[in-house]
Structures are given as structure tokens and as C-alpha cells.
Design a protein that fits this description.
The structure is a single chain. Helices cover 44% and strands 19% of the residues. The chain is of the alpha/beta class. The protein has two domains: 66 residues, Orthogonal Bundle (Chemotaxis Receptor Methyltransferase Cher, domain 1), CATH 1.10.155; 193 residues, Vaccinia Virus protein VP39 (Rossmann fold). α6 links the parallel β1 and β2. The longest helix is centred in the N-terminal third of the chain and has 17 residues.
Length: 275
């Protein structure tokens, strides 16, 4: 399947408008590889024909399928390790000490198939087990993603052997999952029930989400333009409680929103505290 420059330009324009994803000049192969199945599914001959159809207001299903296909959903359990260690050793004890009765709220933005929010929920359980004098920890996790397909997977909380092997230890697997009849692993209800999944485009309003103590927005900002990234970070700052914390991906930085946060070293990583 060929992709001429005009078709590529139009497709890039659509993807940036709909999802904020800023494709590079050399991503033609990525587009043709990921969109091929969508063309077959909808009986389309070319990406040019596809781009014309997704401009129509009535083509919501097709638009979503294209976004699902183009959204990267690379994820791991306890990715980078240090954010979860820092939650358990420092942030959870700090929040619990300052307001023991309040519900701690965490937002996992671009949560993909659920590994990040479930990792946070497991970390909270481990904190309660290990901390002296802590009998309960009220935690509410909001997990959002642009892809409706990937959110449906996340809500099930069931993973195959390959997905489980990416970062999940044998000890945690035994403690927090149940084996299913089809050789998969289902996360236990006590961990699952803390997480509320919902669809959200990071370009849209966050007002309905409420306020958060901690936000995870990792490994997604790298796909956005500088201006959109700065806008998203400013709006994340707006939903953080005073002194709340933001975790970014290891290759991401604050850029145009650096005046809104102060850097806190976690050794080896960093977290950003809202001013």
C-alpha cells in the first residue's frame, strides 16, 4: 500500500487535530502498517479515501478505530520502578500523616491497558501491609485513555502470559492475581475496585475529574507538540492540589510549564511538586 505526500499530510493533520499526536516527517511506514487492518475492515481502498471519510461527523466509529490503531500502547508493570518505590516509602506516608481520614486521589493519564493504575493499587496495598499503625488507606484511582479499545481491555483486568511477564514478579503474581481457565491472569477484585476507568482526550477539559494528590502522566507527552505539551501540563497543574505531585516519563520534561513545579529528586528519578 502506497502513501503519497498529499495523503500523508492530510492524515497527519487529522491525527494532530483529533488526538494531539504530532507525526514526524518520516512516519509514512508507521501509518501504512497500522492503518492497513482498518482499511480492510471498512472496505476502503486507500488512506486518501479514509482521510476523506473520517472528516464526516457521522463517521465516529471509523474515527475511533483510526485513533485506536495509531495510539501507542506500550506499557509494563511497575515501569521504571522508582515512582512506585517513592509512593510507598515517601508520598503515601506523607499524605497519610497530613490527613489520615481523607481519600487520596491519583490520576493515571494515558493508562493504556491498565498496568500503571493497577501497579499503583498494588503499591497502596503493600504500603498498608508494611506500615506500622496503618489499618486502612482510602485511595481512589482515576485511569484515563484516548483509546476505547484499550480501555475495554484495562477494565477487564485480565492478562495473558506475555503481558504479565513484563515487569510482574512471581511474588506479586501469586498475591494479587488469580489464574483463569484459559491460562490467563485476572487481577484480584480488592486491587481492581480502587480503579475507575474513563475515556479522555488530553486535549479536552479536565474539570470533571476533580482534584488530585498525585498525577501520573508518563510517556505520552513525547508525542505532542511543544505548545500542546505546555498546555496539558498547565491544566494538569490546575487539577493538582497545592503541593501535589506529578510523575513524568524518564525522557520527558516540563518544558513551557517549568515555573509551575519544583523538582524533587527521588534517587534515581525525579518527581515534580506543584507550586
Amino acid at each position: 500500500m502506497s502513501l503519497n505526500p498529499e495523503e500523508f499530510t492530510e492524515f497527519r493533520r487529522f491525527l494532530k487535530s483529533a488526538a494531539g499526536i504530532d507525526l514526524g516527517d518520516n512516519k509514512q511506514y508507521l501509518v501504512t502498517t497500522r492503518i492497513r487492518r482498518v482499511l480492510l475492515e471498512f472496505g476502503l481502498e486507500s488512506i486518501g479515501e479514509l482521510t476523506k471519510r473520517i472528516q464526516r461527523a457521522t463517521e465516529r466509529e471509523l474515527r475511533q478505530r483510526v485513533i485506536d490503531a495509531m495510539t501507542t500502547n506500550e506499557t509494563f508493570w511497575f515501569r521504571d520502578i522508582y515512582p512506585f518505590d517513592y509512593l510507598k516509602s515517601t508520598l503515601f506516608p506523607e499524605i497519610k500523616k497530613n490527613n489520615a481520614l481523607a481519600t487520596t486521589r491519583i490520576w493515571s493519564a494515558a493508562c493504556s491497558s491498565g498496568q500503571e493504575p493497577y501497579s499503583i493499587s498494588i503499591t497502596a496495598d503493600e504500603f498498608v501491609r508494611s506500615a506500622r499503625g496503618v489499618s486502612a488507606f482510602n485511595l481512589e484511582l482515576v485511569a484515563t485513555d484516548l483509546s476505547s479499545e484499550i480501555l475495554a481491555q484495562a477494565q477487564k483486568g485480565v492478562y495473558d502470559k506475555l503481558s504479565i511477564s513484563r515487569g510482574m514478579s512471581d511474588k506479586r503474581l501469586r498475591e494479587y492475581f488469580d489464574a483463569t481457565a484459559d491460562n490467563r491472569w485476572a487481577i484480584k477484585s480488592a486491587i481492581k475496585q480502587r480503579v475507575r476507568f474513563r475515556s479522555l482526550n488530553l486535549q479536552d477539559s479536565y474539570l470533571t475529574l476533580g482534584k488530585f494528590d498525585i498525577v501520573f502522566c508518563r510517556n505520552v507527552l513525547i508525542y505532542f507538540s511543544y505548545d500542546l505539551k505546555a498546555d496539558i501540563l498547565k491544566r494538569i497543574h490546575g487539577v493538582l492540589k497545592p503541593g501535589g505531585y506529578l510523575f513524568l516519563g524518564s525522557s520527558e520534561s516540563l518544558g513551557g510549564a517549568s515555573t509551575l513545579f519544583e523538582m524533587v529528586h527521588c534517587n534515581p528519578g525525579v518527581v515534580y511538586r506543584a507550586k
